[in-house]
Design goal:
alpha/beta, Metallo-beta-lactamase, Chain A, seven-stranded mixed beta sheet, globular
Length: about 270
């Protein structure tokens, strides 16, 4: 089972484009999936440069509804047809980001009614040996949930804090055991691994890859999370990217073993 990072904030080679976004191509003997789509500008150019066959996709999984993970969706569906799209039923909420006194659109361009939509609730098998998992708000330890006060949703005409109820991650069973793939880890990286441990009865993971949402959090949050990850789980490979932030990744590298940035163009077996 192979994972290729097609879109990330940083590139591993000059032939690729970087953007604030994330997309990974997951190739298995049972089919291929795209996990997130980036924001649209670099997906197809990078896929072409990396010889990633997006025409072979069996479906798309969206980690949550933010623009940097979903705005590449229109072009994929236009080019590749009405592929099934797995996501939380809450992914299409009206989302905004506060920029001073202004509100910028931060959510998906699609509602689930526009899509060949497949809902993800708790633990949902996408294809053989790949599951999407969610965590109810009531079961997230707030000590490990990243806080983003500028992210809001509009419901019934009112703005409310966006608690990112739609956040989901993937658990993959490969030849090396279980691995976890994160989108932005809005539910908290520690909480996601705790959920995976509960659902799959293991605290040993071959790899954890993806956005860990440490960049916008304080050093105390990062160190607290790193200690919990080190003490509670056995992970052979940490592959942060996207919203983790370089500075946070350096600190993770001091606390954890085998930390390597998963930039655009990274490809690895799991």
């Amino acid at each position: 089972m192979n994972v290729t990072v097609v879109v990330d904030d940083y590139c591993g080679t000059s032939k690729l484009l970087g953007e604030h976004g994330l997309s990974m191509y997951i190739e298995t003997p049972r089919g291929s999936l795209l996990f997130d789509t980036g924001r649209g500008a670099s997906l197809y150019p990078n896929a072409s440069a990396l010889e990633v066959p997006l025409g072979n996709l069996n479906g798309i999984v969206l980690s949550h509804g933010h623009f940097d993970h979903t705005w590449g969706l229109p072009e994929i569906l236009r080019r590749e047809g009405n592929l099934p799209v797995w996501a939380s039923p809450f992914f299409d909420r009206q989302r905004f980001a506060r920029k001073g006194e202004e509100l910028e659109i931060a959510g998906s361009l699609f509602s689930k009614d526009d899509l060949n939509f497949r809902p993800v609730n708790d633990r949902t098998e996408i294809i053989d040996a790949i599951w999407a998992i969610t965590i109810p708000l009531s079961e997230r330890n707030p000590d490990f949930v990243p806080v983003d006060p500028d992210l809001v949703i509009k419901e019934n005409g009112e703005l409310k804090a966006d608690l990112m109820e739609d956040d989901l991650s993937l658990v993959v069973r490969g030849i090396n055991g279980y691995s976890v793939i994160l989108g932005c880890a809005h539910a908290g990286t520690v909480n996601i691994l705790e959920r995976a441990a509960l659902l799959f009865n293991t605290r040993e993971f071959y790899s954890v890859t993806g956005g860990m949402h440490f960049r916008s959090q304080g050093r105390g949050f990062l160190l607290r999370s790193a200690k919990e990850l080190k003490d509670k789980f056995s992970v052979q490979h940490w592959r942060p990217c996207h919203c983790t932030g370089f500075s946070a990744a350096f600190i993770l590298g001091e606390q954890l073993s085998n930390v390597e940035w998963a930039h655009s163009g990274s490809s690895f077996e799991i």
